[in-house]
Amino acid sequence: MRNPQAYLLRVASHVVMEWRDHQPRAESIVTLDDDLLVDNCLPEFVLDASLSQKRLEQTLATISPTMRAVLLLRLRDARSCKEIAQELEITVRQVKRYLARGYERLRMALEN
Fold first, then answer.
1. DSSP-derived secondary structure for the chain
2. pTM for this prediction
3. What CATH number does residue 105 fall under?
4. Which of 6, 11, 31, 97 has its CA 20 to 30 A from that of 64?
């Protein structure tokens, strides 16, 4: 084996993809209460929220499976860095790096 680290990362990405495939399908990453939006917001805010949601979903679709898994476990499941590291079998330091880079990507998507 020429590059054991590359092999390990490849196996880890397959594990994450398999884990993701076994999760219940959600219609969207961020759900919005349509009744609340229609009753209490101006149409401009509804449109802006919808566009922001689409940008976030597009950004999540373009990042690596590991980064996506780390972000979803943190944001959706409210897991700690230690719990995420144990579940994905990576170090806590890697989790923190993925979170920092992932948050930056999501922030840039919302700003554009």
1. ---HHHHHHHHHHHHHHHHHHTSPP-S-SS---HHHHHHHS-HHHHHHHHHHHHHHHHHHHHS-HHHHHHHHHHHTT---HHHHHHHHT--HHHHHHHHHHHHHHHHHHHH-
2. 0.57
3. 1.10.10.10
4. 31
